[in-house]
Amino acid sequence: MFKPNRSTPSTLSLAVAACLLMGAPLADAADKVKVGFVSTLSGPSSALGVDIRDGFLLAVKLNGGKLGGLPAEVLISDDQFKPDVAKQLFEKHIKRDKVDFMTGVVFSNIMLAALPEALDNNVIYISPNAAPSSIAGKDCNPLFFAVSWPNDAYHEAAGEFANQRELKSVYLVAPNYQAGKDSLAGFKRMFKGQVVGENYTKLGQLDYAAELAEIRAAKPQAVYIFLPGGMGINFIKQYVGAGLGKETTLLLPGFSADQDVIKPVGESMAGLFNTAHWSPDFSNPANQKFMTEFQKEYGRIPTLYASQGYDAAQLINAGVRDVKGNLANPEALRKALKAARFDSVRGPFKFNTNQYPIQNYYVRVVGNNPKGGGLINKSFDQPILRDRGDAYVQDCKMKN
Amino acid sequence: MTGLLVIEQLLNGLQFGLMLFLLAAGLTLVFGVMDMINLAHGSLYMVGAFLAAWLVALSGSFVLGVIGAVILTGLFGMALEYGLLRSLYVRDHLSQVLATFALILILNDGVKMIFGNDLPLSAPQALAGSVELLPGLHYPAYRLLILGVGLLLALLMFLLVQKTRLGALVRAGASNREMSIAMGVDIQRLFTIVFGIGAALCAVAGALLGPLLAVQVGMGENILILAFVVVVIGGIGSIRGALIGAILVGCIDTLGRSLLQHALREVLPPQWASAAGPAIASIAVYVFMAAVLALKPQGLFPVRA
Fold first, then answer.
1. Tell me: domain A29-149+282-358, CATH 1.10.260.40, correct?
2. Helix, strand, coil in percent for chain A, rounding step 5
3. Which CATH number does A153-276 carry?
4. What residue in B sits closest to A48 (Cα-Cα)?
5. What share of chain B is helix, strand, coil (3-state, %, to 5)?
């Protein structure tokens, strides 16, 4: 039997302490930027993380492998869709690799588990996707920047769109967990008509026949769903298959009607309305360049996740550039990031006091790609919500 | 709540149950006859769905695509049994669980490498609409097809197991394996055939559910849990148990999500009903399983006395 040496723990902790001491800021002129990128890159939920990564790396590549004028080193690792693995990877990148920025996580629950590793060690986290309401409000943190969209923004935009369409009755479906309830609350915050039914389904549910029969009996003018991932694909397929689409308008959040859903659902996605902060047809030059280069590099149409990864890299680029590569002064770096002087692919973008975005949200409709090759989203000319922040910013006590 | 809605929900439950049966049938045979826990059973369902989506797109015919996928998945299952799983029969259940769990991961990423993360698969155009079964009762035509195929296969399986020589060998193997070996049954060949049939039934389920569910990597794990619940409720190794168990699970799950909610709204204050309803619906199947096991620890139709 192996017997542990009694002196091992104390020796180990001394070694750890020594490592930590050496981790103090080195010099003021950094010779490179190190970014730790932790995302879900394997398994069934990996499509989103892969798109964020590809968007991020594309921006670095188009920048000549640099971020803000310094050579960029992006350390990529896979959280396997597990919060505990993400937490360990954060610790590794922060304590051993001594990264300057952390980014990459797709899912809110995984990010919330790993985030303290970054914040407690004074490492800035740039969120390319997850933006929960808690961090927008009372738990806001100067080191946290959401370059994506607040978790309930799409649902608010959908509620406003239902108002604009003068829909009087809407039926809501979401999984029976906190994010599901928060999302529908976002929709109801904006929607002025009547909610004729709210159905909270099982997480990971496969068959929606029972819910569809309920919807048919309730006869709403529209149905709004928050069913991320495979749940949404299942629901949309069965909704269309049941012929409900002819009687009732189906409204979707943008992530349930993006390329990663259009592909498995197929033709029946055509004509569906959804809300998002970005659309592949945006005509601003930054987006034109992004669309061309992404398709050239990867041979597929980017999702909104890819656009968020691209913007995350652009934000880091702008921040490092504006402090002239001096990463030793965290306060200056933070100010530079907060100014967000880059051309976002989504168009107008700035940070609120809680470092969540203030931006426009658009209604999109799925239709034939004018360039051929299947379906793609097309946005309405006018945003449905203009310069929209979030509903939690007043709870954030951050000074500047 | 009208009578028509109740009928519609019962049909939904029956249809979902029959699909579960196709998965559980193979699982219960493999589990019962070979005493082998095959966690990768759901992966065969995924392979079947991907092959169907690929072949339907390739051939342009839904029927041809599904038949092709069923045959290929059956062959793939037999190859898997011959090449890998055969060596696991003599091992304990833990080794089988570990090996077949590894198989899940390998097949998931293998499918992803070959086909990508997901594939589109739609119902044939002729079955896109709904059929008026009774005045005022519209039911999706495609779900009716699933009902029909499910019932037909259930009947075929019943005949196969009860009336044929192969079925007699399977039943003998399930009730006492050592004795049937002693009686001179070529158990190796039997296992390969049984595994192939199980894989083919998985492919039928995967291909037919493809137009309703996302054909994507990892689709097998979701449905596998319910299939195991069905096997345990029905009694390990029993085809009849798998059929009854699957239909019960399908109906309880569907009715729990619909009728139960209405009933709760009648008897409970609204805020209680809206909180309790979804919670009860999501555990109803497992509560039922616990109740069955408490009363009949061997399941509803135990094979071994």
1. no
2. 45, 20, 35
3. 3.40.50.2300
4. B117
5. 75, 5, 20
Q: Is B217 on the interface with A (CB under 8 A)?
A: yes
CB pairs under 8 A between A and B: 115
**Euclidean distance between the first and the last CA atom of chain B, given in angstroms as a whole number:** 44
Does A219 lie at the interface with B, CB-CB under 8 angstroms?
Answer: no
pLDDT score of A23 more than 60: no
Q: What is the CATH number of domain B3-295?
A: 1.10.3470
CA dist A331 to A327, A336, B56, Å? Answer: 10, 9, 59
Does B262 contact A at CB distance below 8 Å? no
Chain B neighbors of A305, CB-CB under 8 A: none
Sorted by where each begins, the domain ranges of chain B are 3-295
Which of A31-40, A283-292, A391-400, B150-159 is predicted least confidently? Answer: A391-400
Please name which of A274, A280, A298, A307 lies closest in space to residue A376, comparing C-alpha atoms: A280
Segment B91-136, tens digit of pLDDT: 898 999 999 999 999 999 899 899 988 888 888 888 877 888 888 7
Contact A230 B142 (CB under 8 A): no
Over residues B147-169, the pLDDT tens digits come to: 999 999 999 998 998 899 998 88
Q: Which residue of B has its CA nearest to A197?
A: B274
- Verify whether the Cβ–Cβ distance B120 to A204 is below 8 Å: no
Test B213 with A206 for CB contact under 8 angstroms.
yes
The predicted structure's pLDDT at residue B1: 52
Beta carbons of A243 and B130 less than 8 Å apart:
yes
Q: Rounded to a whole number, what is the distance in Å from the CA of B28 to chain A's nearest CA? A: 22
DSSP letter at A355?
A: S
Q: Is the pTM of this model over 0.95?
A: no
Where are chain A's structural domains?
A: 29-149+282-358, 153-276
